[in-house]
Design goal:
Blueprint lengths: L1 E2 L17 H18 L3 E6 L4 E4 L1 H7 L3 H4 L13 H12 L4 E9 L5 E12 L5 E10 L1 H77 L6 H15 L4 H13 L9 H4 L7 H19 L8 H6 L20 H16 L10 H10 L7 H12 L11
Parallel strand pairs: 1-3
Antiparallel strand pairs: 2-3, 2-6, 4-5, 5-6
Helix pairs in contact: 6-7, 6-11, 6-13, 11-12
The chain binds fe (ii) ion (FE2) (2 copies).
One fe (ii) ion binds next to loops.
Amino acid sequence: MVKLSHMKPPSSSSLPVGPTASAVGQEAIARLAAVVASSDFAIIFEEIQGVITAWNPGAEIIFGYTAQEVIGKSSELLLPPERLQEGSFILNKILNGERVRYLETIRVRKDGRHISVSTTASPIFDPNGKVIGVSNIAWDITSQITTQQALVIANQELAFQNEEKAKRAAELVIANQELAFQNEEKAKRAVQLVILNVKLQESLMQTIELARQLVELRDPYTAGHEQHVGDLARAIAEQLGFDMHRQQGLMIAGYLHDIGKIIVPIEILSKPGPISPEEYSLVKNHVQAGYKLLEEVVFPWPIARPVWEHHERLDGSGYPNHLKGDQISIEGRILSVADVVEAISSHRPYRPALGIDRALAEIVRGRGVLYDEAVVDACLKLFRERGYKIANAGA
Ligand SMILES: [Fe+2]
Ligand SMILES: [Fe+2]
């Protein structure tokens, strides 16, 4: 039994014995032994019974045993317990004269550490062709396997991450689709609401127009008065810089401001010439009646209050509550100016139309006393600078 770490020729029992051994000569054998001794591979010879008979320095490095420690021992000491059957499998192959090539397997080092090796086991024949031993050439592939395993793990992790990303992307696509659907639904509902709102608005305006016409039917001598006051009030509001919504509210308040006249007897409304104080007091009740009619109606603008206030004057000389200054809402102050200008400029049963100049002269006379200064100024600007005209107004 020989340790193949020396360059001296080994004994015939410790080297492979083949039909060509005697022919190569002692020098060739020595060179061969030197190759074995200097190899990084583990080169191990074992008898057919599994006893190790030769062990090179490469085997010392890979398995941690010196030649003295293993020679004469069973090669099973290199096998992990769970791989003992693998030893029998290799032996059977060898006994059949076959090789086991590049088997990647696990072996145990002297320090107990398991290492991955690639091993090739070849049968050794005697001159008669009988198998008498095994040559094992093995090399450590632990780092290679570890690298491969790390790569496999890294690839698996990458595949997992890609799968997760794909899942998240798919979830995002679904979420986006859901969001798009919700937005579409919202847009549809918004359009429906707009349509509904427009229809409601149309229906409200038709109702207001109906109420206005009902008042005019009872008071045909002031036909168009409500509409003219509403239009002028809206124009004054625009001149004052009110937004569209408030402008519309003032127009509607104007259209309805004399709705309370339905309680005034038609004989009084259409009476030519002056009316008696009793009759005048009946006429004045139209303000309260209008307020009562409108206060329960839900409008998106203040309507009932300015209607109630349209005969109030800044100095408290108006009716029905003799409100003063800021006690009268701005809508009420606008309505009162529009009402006076329209009434004076137009025809009345008891007098002819006095014309726009007389009407404007009246608000100039009462500016800051009876009528709001800013409202009067806005009204004057409309007629004097912007060419505003009341339809069918007297000259
Ligand atoms: Fe009135
Ligand atoms: Fe009026």
